[in-house]
Amino acid sequence: MAIRVMHFGLGPIGCAVARQVANRRDFKIVGGIDVDPAKVGQDVGDVIGLERKVRAKVAADAAAALETLKPDIVVLCTQSSLSRVLPQIETILAAKVPIVSTTEELAYPTSVNRKWARRIDALAQEAGVAVLGTGVNPGFVMDALPITLTGVCERVDALEIDRIQDARTRRLPFQLKIGAGLTPEQFLEKVESGSVRHVGLAESISMIADAMGWKLEYITDDIAPKIASKPVSSEFLTVKRGQVCGIIQDGIGYISGQPLIKLHMEAYLGAPESYDAVRVTGSPNLSMKIVGGVAGDVATASIVVNSIPKVLVAMPGLRTMRDLPIPSYFGGKLLSG
Amino acid sequence: MAIRVMHFGLGPIGCAVARQVANRRDFKIVGGIDVDPAKVGQDVGDVIGLERKVRAKVAADAAAALETLKPDIVVLCTQSSLSRVLPQIETILAAKVPIVSTTEELAYPTSVNRKWARRIDALAQEAGVAVLGTGVNPGFVMDALPITLTGVCERVDALEIDRIQDARTRRLPFQLKIGAGLTPEQFLEKVESGSVRHVGLAESISMIADAMGWKLEYITDDIAPKIASKPVSSEFLTVKRGQVCGIIQDGIGYISGQPLIKLHMEAYLGAPESYDAVRVTGSPNLSMKIVGGVAGDVATASIVVNSIPKVLVAMPGLRTMRDLPIPSYFGGKLLSG
Fold this sequence. Notes:
Two copies of one chain form a homodimer.
Chain A: E1 3-8, H1 12-23, E2 27-33, H2 44-47, E3 58-59, H3 62-69, E4 73-76, H4 82-94, E5 99-101, H5 114-127, E6 130-133, H6 144-149, E7 155-166, H7 172-177, H8 184-193, H9 201-212, E8 218-227, E9 232-233, E10 238-239, E11 244-255, E12 258-268, E13 275-283, E14 286-291, H10 296-312, E15 317-319
């Protein structure tokens, strides 16, 4: 029996997830939900750029679609903010359907978001289903994977995690999100307004701290522009010398006054090497590197799809990557078509 | 409330686990079991090389000790072979006590061992407790960690995993186990008799194949001597040119006639670089390296101890690293003493 999936939110990430679901065994797309009038009423296959119809439409009214289609799971890819997706989650849980979401703030409850997380946990328990927030980051490279490495440690003193990405090969919205092509002044304005920012460092730091049994005092999350020292271009845009080519963001978790969890991200056009790295200081020390890094969009879509079978059998409530079984590829083979 | 731990088997690994249990918060050693008459009757602290007594004795009779001491968990570190530890496991499960074991063949049921695994699973379910086999390898670097990486893949075509260790810094029994100092002829005799061999490649390959949803056709497991091209020595022994300085072992899992899971181990005195590496071929490709590798004994002892709280709340039955929550350090801090 195929797992019947409804896709709530068909932006770039929602579409990437839906394409995997369409092309993998054991899944069936039963419907889509989107606010965009241009998408509503279309076949999901057309909206996500498949070569074929999937015989499932995009609707605007989530509650009605849930009632009619009775999916086994909803993939929720709409917004980053927990308070803003809360009404959507309430609608889905009212239909007693489990959720996998790329909402960054759902990846782990921070102290700021704890009240929303508690409410979602209570609603999910009432509905008897599990809710999971996941993705490549937050959800994997800067939290679940480093935590996994500490499983072989008898003592952990500190963690440092780097994610360095050459953004030249990423999609245009990502290049814009990191501020590429802006002047430094424009960049700072966008940081102030919150439109240039990676969401998730506080979530990753909180997940690590809880896993280590450390009581966090506070978290800092600082953003700086990466300034191009020479012209650099991607398929989509060109950045002049002195303009912003991307973002540098540092999240630090302090415990007993010490910066024990350090997350460092650089994403800019022209980074000489993409990689993910984890250094655990403790016994033993561990130094891990993923050469080339873990590609953002395909990895996020993959971990969402791979998590679906685990969420279907998880304990009801708000779950995190900390309490699910180890991540793993699911599905065996792609359909030949 | 401290977790009350009984240590069944006080060889080098059992002692390493017990030392961590003695030195970490939230655990209490309540007893030891060993066949060695020189250890029976001693305080566990003396046997494991602590500077202090732990006020718990080593006993020879497991059933009686379990009955009297009622531990929360037994750490079983006796033998590699599932059929040989089966009577010990039966004794422990008769007392309805959960188990974490370093028995390599318990790390994952291979087709050869399936009947023993089924029996243990049935007994554990009857007892209402969980049984886990774990360690650094099998249990982590060549199975659980590579599987975790595939969580960000939309397709997996093949996995290659390397574990290269300079054995100069390892304990003497390990150096002897890999055949260091033997002539090539002696080495081959010991391979034939089964005394020179890493146990666990078939277990790791089976775990990966099941996680990927691949049906294994067969597994090969081949051992070759590493011959010293120049003299090399450790703290304990010297190997002449032309003698064996260690072991090369290759495990391969074939699916549809293809070698899709390749595990390659080298452990020898004088390896120029120790590391663990995973390459996933698929979408996306992934290439991970742990520089310096994951140290064997401390990592095995650590993952055993870190797994205890997870096993205590796991579903009854024979569990594996595939179905437990992600590995993580447990315990917060070492006691200052």
